[in-house]
Amino acid sequence: MPVVLTETRDRAFVVTINRPDVRNCVDGETAGLLFEAVEAFRADDSLDVLILTGAGDPSAGSGQAAFCAGADLKGSASLMARPGAQESGPMGFSRITDLEKPAIAAVNGYCLAGGLELACWCDFRIADESSQFGVLNRRWGVPLLDGGTQRLPRIVGMGNALYLIETGVMIDAQQALRMGLVQEVVPRGQALERVLALAKAMSSYPQLSLRNDRRAAIEGLSLSLPEGLELERRVHEASLRDPAMAEGLRRYAAGDRPAPPRPPA
Fold first, then answer.
1. Integer-rounded Cα radius of gyration of the chain
2. 162 CB contacts (<8 Å, ≥6 apart)?
3. φ, ψ of residue 146 in degrees (nearest 5)
4. Based on the number of CB atoms within 10 Å of its own CB, is 137 exposed (0-12), middle (13-18) or buried (19 or more)?
5. Which residues, listed in sequence order, are joined to residue 13 by a DSSP beta bridge?
6. Domain ranges across the chain
7. Tens digit of pLDDT for each residue in 210-255?
8. Which architecture, in CATH terms, is 4-203?
9. Cα 237 from chain centroid?
10. How far apart are CA 68 and CA 18, in angstroms?
11. E-strand spans in the chain?
């Protein structure tokens, strides 16, 4: 069985780390296949959203299920020895910063160390109630090399990020929700289905304006407010000319009001 599975669901591309016997830890082979999956998604114009998840039985709970428990420390040398690891990141794709389409993490069970870094690479995270998060590599002196020191503070703020990074504490899904690390918590075993539903809604929207909003938000983080506003204006020159926007306005004028997605109660 391949250690990384890929599947097309409507216009979503589901990438599954498939090493449940080691809680989906990533070795060199797995990292290489994850990189290839992200590049395949990038190149396929028929796909709008990448979904990253982990194999296993979500109903088993956090004691057995896992999104990804980090690098396979028994084979850690293979991560850095992988061709392209310096450019794309030891875990496969964490140093890719120019993906132009959304990515979502569907988390169940353990999301730890490098696995947490991969989840943070995604635009946002949906977790089931069994999920647990932490920088548990702290215990062995293994550093964050897949973007954790950069993305965690941007997602949860510096205090929360340093709390996780320095203490090595493990938190549950509800605390992760309070921090803003995850955006929704769903019942056990339902993270992937919820993400697929969100991805389907996202694919129904005009894509150019969605991707340009995403680009302006991400690139604007490193800019001053005036520079960010100029970036927003510039990237949306194309959005305003998009025929899909004209069609959307026509449907609005005709009374078409699709119901928006809503978070779980």
1. 19
2. 153
3. -120, 40
4. buried
5. 8, 50
6. 4-203, 207-253
7. 999 999 999 999 999 999 999 999 999 999 999 999 999 999 999 9
8. Alpha-Beta Complex (3.90)
9. 28
10. 9
11. 4-9, 12-17, 49-54, 66-68, 103-107, 110-112, 124-128, 132-134, 170-172, 184-186
Alpha helices in 82-190 (DSSP H): 85-88, 114-121, 148-156, 158-167, 173-179
For 23-56, what is each residue's pLDDT tens digit?
999 999 999 999 999 999 999 999 999 999 999 8
pTM, two decimal places: 0.94
Structure tokens at 97: 């910063």
Q: Are 51 and 195 in contact (CB under 8 A)?
A: yes
Distance (Å, rounded) from C-alpha 48 to C-alpha 42?
Answer: 9
Total Cβ atoms within 10 A of residue 37: 22
The residues pairing with 4 across neighbouring beta strands, listed in sequence order, are 17
Tokens for 249?
Answer: 């306005």
Q: For residue 208, which of 167, 177, 245, 171 has the smallest C-alpha distance?
A: 245
CA quadruple 212, 161, 113, 85: dihedral positive or negative?
positive
| Residue appearing with tokens 């979904």 | 51
